[in-house]
Amino acid sequence: MKDTAASNTDLVEILTRALPYIQRFQGKTIVVKYGGNAMINSSLKEAVIRDVILLSLVGIRVAMVHGGGPEIDVMLRALGKGSRFVQGLRYTDEETMEIVQMVLCGRVNKEITAMIQAGGGRAMGLCGIDGGLLRARRLRPRGEDLGLVGEIEYVEASLLNTLLDSSVIPVISPVALGLGGDEGKSLNINADTAAAKIAVALGAEKLLLMTDVRGILRDVDDPESLVRVIPRPDLDRLKTDGVITKGMLPKADCCAFAIDGGVKRAHIIDGRLPHALLIELFTDEGIGTMIE
Description:
Order of helices and strands: HEHEHEEHEEEHEEEHEEHHEHE
CATH architecture: 3-Layer(aba) Sandwich
Strand content: 15-25%
Largest sheet: 8 strands, mixed
Helix content: 40-55%
Strand order of the largest sheet: 5-8-2-1-11-13-14-12
Number of helices: 9
CATH topology: Carbamate kinase
CATH superfamily: Acetylglutamate kinase-like
Structural class: alpha/beta
Radius of gyration: 19 Å
CATH class: Alpha Beta
Number of domains: 1
């Protein structure tokens, strides 16, 4: 009986500590990019879904943008088709685009949506084609041909706001509707980039990128060298100094784009840790790197 009383007291203490954060973010919009190991590990997946439902139920407007690279790779291998990457982005020919759309907009998107619904939340699964939500032109970095890979030029924010105003969680696949010479075609969009563009379009309070590392590290070989808070001007300096390199560069660029576009804060957090979203949002210490 004493142990039960103690655990109940601990629970009340946790909820009391979370209250100021709930009050601060109630009615505000956050955009979560959901990807990495948190999409593969079943217990982590369940924890993320529960976090998102809780955030929505306490009045925080949550939009989710998901990836699905590993699932796409599995399907490509099953069909005897290889994967090719150019500057970190998947080269997407027409056949690959069909597979990307099938996996992301079909299986992955609907699985996440169904999990939120089953957990007591309200969600609507969308891809960028639905309602012209995301419009994009082909991306050609430094003249490289990436095939049907796009860069978002327009987000139909009114559609998302209608859902968010009704306490519905939009679950968004990063497949966009083409513009110009690709009018009517589907274009593959990097999920981190899509999340940043959507966060700016919604005037979000926060952008949270879930990844498979602790955050930005001063020493990539030392997990304890986490940089917890980075003022926006210092982000460029860390890139110049070589602290931010390789796979962290595009994530840092997405955070910079979001902050420059009016998002209050951007976070890179470790999705391998259960309830990473709640720890980052509802504690002073947080769990990853915050750019402000």
